[in-house]
Structures are given as structure tokens and as C-alpha cells.
Amino acid sequence: MSLIKIEHLQKKYTESMPLKDINAEINKGDIISIIGPSGTGKSTLLFCLNQLEIPTAGKVFLDGEEITDPKCDINAVRRKMGMVFQHFNLFNNKTVLENVICAPMDLLKIPRAQAEKEGRELLKKVGLEGREDHFPEELSGGQKQRVAIARAIAMKPEILMLDEPTSALDPTLVNEVLSVIRGLAEDGMTMLIVTHEMRFAREVSNRIFFLTDGEIYEEGSPEQIFENPQREKTRAFIKQLKTLSMTVSSLDADISGITEQLEEFGRKTLLSSRKMRNLSLVVEELIVQIASHYRQTQEDVSIHIYVEQSETENSVSLEIKYQGSAFDPTENGDELSLLIIKNMTSELSYQYTRGSENNVNQIHAII
Ligand SMILES: Nc1ncnc2c1ncn2[C@@H]1O[C@H](COP(=O)(O)OP(=O)(O)OP(=O)(O)O)[C@@H](O)[C@H]1O
Ligand SMILES: [Mg+2]
Questions:
Q1: Together in a domain, 10 and 83
Q2: pTM, whole model, 2 decimals?
Q3: How many domains does the chain have?
Q4: I need a labelling partner for 92 at 20 to 30 A (CA). Which of 111, 311, 313, 365 fits?
């Protein structure tokens, strides 16, 4: 028997109907990532599962019991379904330890001494040993989210539902939270995770639900969904996840800002870290060359950078376009830069097109 069964679930608001007809079975041990465009009802789906939102129609079963039945003890159900939110939702007037132990003490009637002992162990598990007596506002976003995870699993839920647990975090703090979730996955926790972190989803999940148009539009293994999506909207969505475009000005090109965006892109896509390093290096070298050239000629040039991961392979195509007078940074620049650019790319090309209104420099490379 499946742990959760969803039948024709529907949620209508006055203005919209985010869930039209959701059907799914979730088995014990499943780790399912839910992906989909903004506003398609991913959060609504999680809320309708643990009845924080009341579905308009349809049924949800947990362990064979219909939890959408008004007679069902919903508090008992919620204890079995842990929830981690994007914005942590901690009790700010309680210490870290109190946040973790209050529900087990109040709802599961676990004696304080035992709850504290278990709470301390959980905090250690999420890497927060020594923070027990701190208040949430003394913590970083990543630490707060780890407290929220510890608090959810303190209830020993049968399933943990996480709604974009890393999207409110500074990029440097994302990995610490993802690695805690990876640890839970290794422990065999059943999880339903709304996430845009493609690489993480691919590594940790056994199933992906692509949600759009009020239904699970396509479902499959991570390989199928990320590398070989079958339906048109899934393909378009995945393609957009695999692209990055940025525009910088030659006069104040912020190299560290570019590198940061590339790193975030690398984390979300399926590229190897070596590939990412090479990509960062090549982009950095090219932009530095271009920017310093136009600084000398005193032209203010917009530089467009477009990166796209290829569908199946571990490779990226890079396109850099800028107007202004002709300048080929793949041939004119300092020797070390040229060496890096040439060694790390294939199909490197430069083209200058004179137009009636604009002249365009264009570089293309595969990395
Ligand atoms: N309480 C509410 N009252 C009215 N409309 C709502 C409510 N909650 C959500 N909606 C609407 O339902 C739709 C789905 O919202 P939801 O937050 O579930 O999307 P999402 O997929 O989680 O989006 P995101 O990726 O931006 O988090 C949206 O059009 C939203 O405006
Ligand atoms: Mg949401």
C-alpha cells in the first residue's frame, strides 16, 4: 500500500484554480522533487496534502486513511507530515532547542528530559551543536533552515515536505542546507521537495513531478525529466533551467558578480564542477579583455553573456555579444588569457558583423 495516495485533487480560489486534477501515489522511501514554473500550485499542493489548505475536491489518503474526510483527526495527521517552509517560520521568542522540542513535548507528550536529549542529538545531526541556547535572530538563514528541519524531524514524521527550502538563502548558504537534506535521504526519510536545484534534485530524488496547468504534467526519473523530457512544456521548462543570460557594461563590468551568477547556475544545472570552473575562467578572461579594451577606446558597450547547457552532455555553449568597434579578444589580449581561452574551449569563433544601425562583435565557444 502506498504511503500517500492523491485522487483527483482540486483547489480553486476565487480568481484561480492552481490544482485541477492531481493524481499520484507516494511510496515509503520515495524522494520526490516537484518542479514547475512560478505560480503553478507547488506550494498549494503541499498545503492541500497536510490540509493547511482545504482542497476544493478530491481525496488524499495517508496510510490508507482518508485525511480529506472532515471526520479525520487532522492534528494527528499533521504530526505525521513534517513541513519545512521557504522562510523557516521559527518561533523567534524561543531558543533553538525550545523550537525543536516544543512540539514533541506538547503534542507527543514526550517528557522534557527525553525531548531535550533527542533535540540536542538532532541539532548535532544538522550541524548546530553549541547553538542550542541561541535565538533564531542570532543565526544565519542557513542555520535557521537547519533548525526548521531539525524541528520537523523531531516529530518523527512519516513524510517530510519541504517547500523551496533553499530559495530564500544567500547562495553561499545553500549547500549546508542541501547537505542536511541529503543526510535525511540517506537515512531513508520519505520526502516531497519543491526545488529549483536541478543537480540536487537529480542526485537525491528517485522521482520528479513536473507540475503545470493544474496537473502533474509529466512524471519520471530524474534522468528522464532532466535529460529526455517527453512533453513540450517540460522540455521548454528544463531548457530554461539550463540557460543563463547576463548583461554587463564594459565600463563597470563586475567580475565577481558574474562569477557569483555562474556559480549559482552551475549548482542548479547538472554540470560537473570541473566544467563549471573552466566556464568561469573563460568568461572571466574574455570579459576582462573586452572591458579593458573598451575602457581604452572610451566606448560604453553592453556585453551580453548567454550560457546554455547542452541537453544530454556535460558541455555548455557560450555566446558573448557586444556592439562597438571591432575587437577580437580571442586573438588580441595578454598571452596567458589567450592560452586559457584556447585551451578550455572548442569551436571557438569570433565574428564581426557590420549592420546599418549597429555593428556586433560575437564570440561563440563550446566548453
Ligand atoms: N490563499 C490564496 N488565495 C488566493 N489565491 C491563492 C492563494 N494561495 C495561492 N493562490 C494562487 O494560486 C496559484 C498557485 O500558487 P502557489 O503559491 O501554490 O504557486 P507555486 O507553484 O508555489 O509558485 P512559486 O514557485 O512562486 O512558489 C497562484 O496563482 C496564486 O496566486
Ligand atoms: Mg511556492
A1: yes
A2: 0.89
A3: 2
A4: 111
